[in-house]
Amino acid sequence: MILEAVYHRPKDNYAYACTNNELHIRIKTKKNDIQEVTLLHGDPYQWENGKWIYENKKMILTGADHLFDYWFAPISPPFKRLRYGFLLSNESEKVFYGEKGFADSPSTDIGDYFCFPFLNAIDVFKAPSWVKDTVWYQIFPERFANGNENNDPEGSLKWNSSDPTPSNFFGGDLDGVIQNIPYLKELGISGIYFTPIFKAQSNHKYDTIDYFEIDPQFGTKETLKKLISTCHEHGMKVMLDAVFNHSGFYFEQFQDVLKKGENSPYKDWFHVKEFPLDIDMVPPNYDTFAFEPTMPKLNTENNEVRQYLLEVGRYWVKEFDIDGWRLDVANEVDHHFWREFRKEVKSIKPDLYILGEIWHDSMPWLRGDQFDAVMNYPFTTNLLNLFAKRTITPTQFVENMTTVVHMYPKNVNEVNFNLVGSHDTPRVLTECGEDIQRVKQIYTFMLSFTGTPCIYYGDEIGLTGGQDPGCRKCFPWEKEHHNEDLFTHIQKLIQLRKDYSLLANEGALAFLPGYLHDQCLAFTKSNGKDTILVLLNCKDEPTSYSLPFNLKGKKITNLWSNEDFAAEADSIEVELEGYGFAFLHF
């Protein structure tokens, strides 16, 4: 038994409160090393005749990556307290594992067991429940639609008359979004995520000048109120994007420091290393986003800065009834600020969704005191590597995705923001070598998987484009420029996700073997009564997939084709065309 590979800690994604009454316990072991894990658990105050009383519960193997097996057990302690340990078994030995290490048999000292002191309801991770049923659509406002030419920036180009550059403008605005809400409704969208709409110099608006004003090229505050009320009338949520890590170059307070140096009352609003500020120095003599001198980093440890930004957070929730904040470069802002931010905005709207832009393992931000979710880029990378870049096999994909799924608690995964493209990445169709079938497979997986999925504007009609600025083209509204087949495919997937909660966030997830030269990707979602098997052929050659369980005598429905068939044989083969897929419900 490889004991040094065994890992557990009584916190975060290894021991957490899933509900007010249920704890989830996880442990990882060396892959294929342990045959069985038994959880020994009991209330720390239940004793008889001088002995602590505990119960045994077999743990479930919930997945394996290339190094580890992951085991899971749900526990509902009647008194909300728990002491627990693990009994690890293979063919040759049994080993007890507790807080103080390993032993040949279960310890009689309760101090050797892990401790979950008390399940306090206030500590349970609670994200807004509506997010689990939301399909997002990300809009880059400057390039979605021009609904009011009167507010176009000076020098704006005719819509879609040129390729996007870092500095050109086409006049996209909020009126353009309002006019096209019926299009989003037709697609099945239930949430819109806007990149920044506040006053800024650039076309991307991540260089904020005034956090309390809408950029004039997008409209007015009245336009935003009309947009939000229209969205709400159509059952759509609205999430705005805020940049609290850094301001823009023309932010009034930064301009004051540039002019007055040490005499500026705002000198401590930024991380200045020496005066005067030198914007031509490489790197600048003040902290910035990356090494970009026009994006000076804000000092969120400064009380004035903190109060200013907290009021920004409160203002747009209170006055405009937004449903979510997406927070740019969230990992570079101090945790203390985010804890305060959460309290302030949630006190106004408890079911507000707080989404952080973090590209790496984000557990420190997902303990229930800061964010509800992060942008799930590990998910993105894995999906693109399988279908777009074709650098991994389905087996490697399952191993990687098993790691991703076990990075966070289940109730985090259910609201984590899954995406395959954004304003920061090449278009998904471009990544796929403009192969529509591979794009369809990507959306088939994403829109039937755990999490809250997001579509980047235009990806649903086959828009192409490389890395920024290529991924920021104008949306072509002429139907002849739309791939209607792709649109219909995504539209149907969204509808199925709404119709069958197992294709969203209900049920337990389990990956299945790929078979036949590692060609297929398969997983089930099951709630104990119903099961849906999602099956994808990852190659362009046809294949068949042998279902790895006995379904004889059961009625099976292919949800995509709406065909029913009864399983008569002992084994069932599912025929799949190249890049084919099936949703089998039984």
Task: Set down the secondary structure blueprint.
Blueprint: E1 15-17, E2 23-30, E3 36-42, E4 47-48, E5 51-52, E6 55-58, E7 60-64, E8 68-75, E9 82-89, E10 94-98, E11 101-103, E12 114-116, E13 136-139, H1 174-179, H2 181-187, E14 191-194, E15 198-200, E16 208-214, H3 221-233, E17 237-242, H4 252-260, H5 303-320, E18 324-327, H6 335-348, E19 353-356, E20 373-374, H7 377-388, H8 394-405, H9 410-413, E21 417-419, H10 428-431, H11 436-446, E22 452-456, H12 484-499, E23 508-512, E24 520-526, E25 531-537, E26 543-546, E27 555-558, E28 563-566, E29 573-576, E30 581-585
Parallel strand pairs: 13-14, 13-22, 14-17, 17-18, 18-19, 19-20, 21-22
Antiparallel strand pairs: 1-2, 2-8, 3-6, 3-9, 4-5, 7-8, 9-10, 9-12, 10-11, 15-16, 23-24, 24-25, 25-30, 26-29, 27-28, 27-30
Helix pairs in contact: 5-6, 7-8, 7-11, 11-12
Largest sheet: 8 strands, parallel
Strand order of the largest sheet: 20-19-18-17-14-13-22-21
Helical amount = 10-25%
The CATH architecture classification of the largest domain is Alpha-Beta Barrel
Q: How would you portray this structure in words?
A:
The protein has 586 residues and is α+β, with helices and mostly antiparallel strands. It folds into four domains: 3-123, Immunoglobulins (Immunoglobulin-like, Sandwich), CATH 2.60.40; 135-244 and 307-372 and 416-503, Glycosidases (TIM Barrel, Alpha-Beta Barrel); 246-297, Oligo-1,6-glucosidase, domain 2 (Alpha-Beta Complex); 508-585, Sandwich (Immunoglobulin-like), CATH 2.60.40. The protein contains twelve helices and 30 strands. An eight-stranded parallel sheet has the order 20-19-18-17-14-13-22-21. Strands 3, 6, 9, 10, 11 and 12 form a six-stranded antiparallel sheet that branches. A six-stranded antiparallel sheet has the order 23-24-25-30-27-28. A hairpin with a 4-residue loop joins strand 9 (82-89) and strand 10. Helix 7 packs antiparallel against helix 8 (394-405).
